[in-house]
Specification:
- The complex is a heterodimer of chains A (about 675) and B (about 240).
- Chain A has about 675 residues and is of the alpha/beta class.
- Chain A contains 29 helices and 25 strands.
- Among the domains of chain A are: about 220 residues, 3-Layer(aba) Sandwich (Rossmann fold), CATH 3.40.50; about 170 residues, NagB/RpiA/CoA transferase-like (Rossmann fold, 3-Layer(aba) Sandwich), CATH 3.40.50.
- In chain A, helix 17 crosses helix 20, helix 21 packs across helix 22 and helix 26 packs across helix 27.
- The radius of gyration of chain A is 29 Å and the shape is elongated.
- The termini of chain A are far apart.
- Chain B is α/β, with parallel strands linked by helices.
- Chain B folds into 2 domains: about 120 residues, 3-Layer(aba) Sandwich (Rossmann fold); about 120 residues, Rossmann fold (3-Layer(aba) Sandwich).
- In chain B, the strands form 2 sheets. Chain B has a 4-stranded parallel beta sheet, sandwiched between helices. Chain B has a 4-stranded parallel beta sheet with strand order 7-6-8-9, with helices on both faces.
- In chain B, helix 12 links the parallel strand 8 and strand 9.
- Classes of the chains: A alpha/beta (about 675), B alpha/beta (about 240).
Amino acid sequence: MTTHLKKKIRTALANPTLQAALDGNAERRLKARLQALSEYSTEEHQSIRQRAHEVRAEVITNLEGYLEEFSTNARKNGFVVHKASDRPEAIQIIRDLVKEHKAKVIAKSKTMVGEEIHLNHALEADGLKVVETDLGEYIVQLRGEIPSHIITPAVHLTRQDVGQTFAEKLGIPYTDDIPTLTAVARRVLRQVFFEADIGISGVNLGVAENGALCIVTNEGNGRMCTTLPKVHIALMGMERLVPTMDDLALMLGLLPRSATGQKLSVYTSLINGPRGKEEIDGSEERHLILLDNGRLALRSTPLEEALYCIRCGACLNVCPIFREIGGHSYVGVQGQNTPYSGPIGSAISPGLFGVAEFGQLARASSLCGACKEACPIDIDLPKLLLRIRAGEGKRATKATSGSHVPRAMQFGLRMFAWMATSPGRFSAAQRMAGVFSRLIPPYSDWMSLPAFTGWGYRRDLPKPAAKPFHSSFTQIGLRDSASDHATSTEGQPRDQVSTDPPVSSPVSEGGPEKRKTFLVERFIDELTTLGGKVVECGPEELPEKVFNFLNSENIWAIQTWEESQLPEGLLLSLKERNIQIQNILNPSIQAGLTGALAGIASSGSVVLTSGVGRPLTVSLLPEFHIVVLQKEKIYSKLAEVLCLPQVRQATTSVVITGPSRTADIEMALTIGVHGPKEVCVFLI
Amino acid sequence: MTQTVQLFTTCIIDTLYPETGEAVVRILRRAGVRVELPPGQTCCGQPAFNAGMRLQAMPIAMHTIKVFEKTQGPVVCPSGSCTGMIRHGYLELFANDPNWLPRAQSLAERTYELTELLVNYLGVTDLGARYPGKLTYHSSCHLLRDLGVDRQPRALLANVREAEFVELPYSQECCGFGGVFSVEHPEISTAMLQRKIDNIEASGAPLVVSCDAGCLTNINGGLHHLGKPQRVVHIAEILAQS
């Protein structure tokens, strides 16, 4: 009988377009990840992974306590916190909110939990307009498909596929030009952001100590969905917590590097609560739904470690099986889909949705260990897959006697075990195999087996030896004198690990002045690499330099932060030069001018916090984002910035790392999706 | 006094490649140790363990533990995968068995993969081997990622006289074997194998060296099926050449 899984596998292998797309994904992501991690020494990298593992283990072990702390703090911050034990409960909570707010249009940014509870399906059935706004998610939604990768939903499609989909569904003339397609999505979805009554987002990590939500996106749609609609609903798997902001910094050092090979994603948002008094943007009402759906039950089972996952997708990208079959092949015994594919999907899907239903996925692995090696949390995925194979986990049957083992294999292995526990039987079987394999065909050292054996499918088998090794062992000495040619350097066991010299940072040497110069240089270097612009100038030259920039782009009206939030005299000087200044939210404006709380040298990021006179939409809606940053506010690392009191107090903070971007179509980098296509920092 | 090591041949080498077993004995002797072959050994139990049939894997593992408990000194195994099974798999298999866990642990602690024993334990990187020809190296998954053994076989190969070593592109990628996986999912397995074969061809080397008879059987099986001239050999056979 051909199972649904087998059918999917064969279809995927026979699809050359899919194969090319998967190869492209694997090759680019592998290279980018290694490049991004290359700044750590091997020892540093391993020690960071171990720390991350410990942090996640601690959270999962004491999940109830952290959930309590997190929920209490989030409520204090103004979130309405809901707990949903399963899919129907989560859907009902959202339905009630939709009804309460008489919502008609919902803008969604990426949420795997949303996929897990089939949210779109449920809301569309209620007659709502639900629009995915991540470019990849939008494409698969238009096609009526499900995402085929945790972080690259449309990885299975080519630009031609996307072009055809857009032509059919959006009524535009066919094009396969990626920037054009991206621009179309920007235009269509921009409308949706403004129309939407409710924005629904996922959550990358929640911070227990202060109740903050961290959401990382590259395109800017996550920021749109959590800022523009009046009501924001955040959907979160209840295990996705870290205890402290320091732990968050640790995870953010791993997550984007492992996922896309970026030091930081373009937008790292920290949402502490709803819009504050007198703030002019940001959602006014924020809900947080903590979904269980099998997570609590998975704890204290042999599959608990699967809950450590932070969904970076690195294991999918390195997995040789994922590379052959793609995300859509990962189905249950009834052919049902799971949002979680690849190695982690083969562990978490049986873990959450049942071993009986999804345990077969754990068998579709060569256990090569590439996933464990790539996992930023060092989750022992091969061990988990082996445990599932052994029938451990939720709703497992016939514990420890194997689950989903094909019948012929069961029989074969029982026979093998019978022989391998008796040297006499084993030896006899070896000799018999040696003799019989020589009968047909007698003159070759090879046998070709029929395809149904599995081995014979495009593979031959060498014949067993006429006499096994153990029967001739005693004779080896007769033919070979035990002479010692070897050059032995030492006779005793040696230490296996050679340690690299510690890497000295130039920052630690020299005085504070030198350090400042280093940070500024590093900042400029990193940001310009990402396609950002940097202009260094003295405070007195600032108005002129900003004006020159606007002039060169032919921009005469800008939206800005309030005067008090910017260097003194800047807005006045710009007005004198006939630049029109606006403080209100205006979608048609081309450029936004903001200050910044801080800069981050190691990633070329600027950090903005919301507050009165500092609307964050200024840094999001226009095509150009102009930032004024003081040199002395450049810090070395993200962790230092996350400690700043302003970041902890603001209702929302965002770490912006370069212009908005996507690689959702054919992994081709395209700049300016939903957020600004240009970021220009004036360093004073 | 001459050091004695206990050889765990593994079922694949015992059954399919007795000449590899002989090569292992030769190089160990050349490294200055006495080699004993504890009688009664069969298989480590990995096929049943990987299939998820732990009830069947357990008695095989117990059998192996008993065979080596009668001996002393390091156990050497010319396979990364079987060594990994003993070192990590047994601990998982007997995790809840207070009687067998310590026995499994003591075997795990004294078991070494062949190149690991040579380089780390015996401190030997030059066996005086000579092989006139082009070679490349396939990093077997369990050897590389489960045991962390990579520099050892490379160091040993680097000292093979007259050999021209070339790097195998994507050497660390799985060949698609995976034990029971290769027969349960032959479609995926052979697609992965095809990628390995393409890379072998791209390397330009006619001979690939591997430390695992499982990978070797899989890759050679594919190469032979396709009528390709390249072959994979166990590292012991190259190191035994002189």
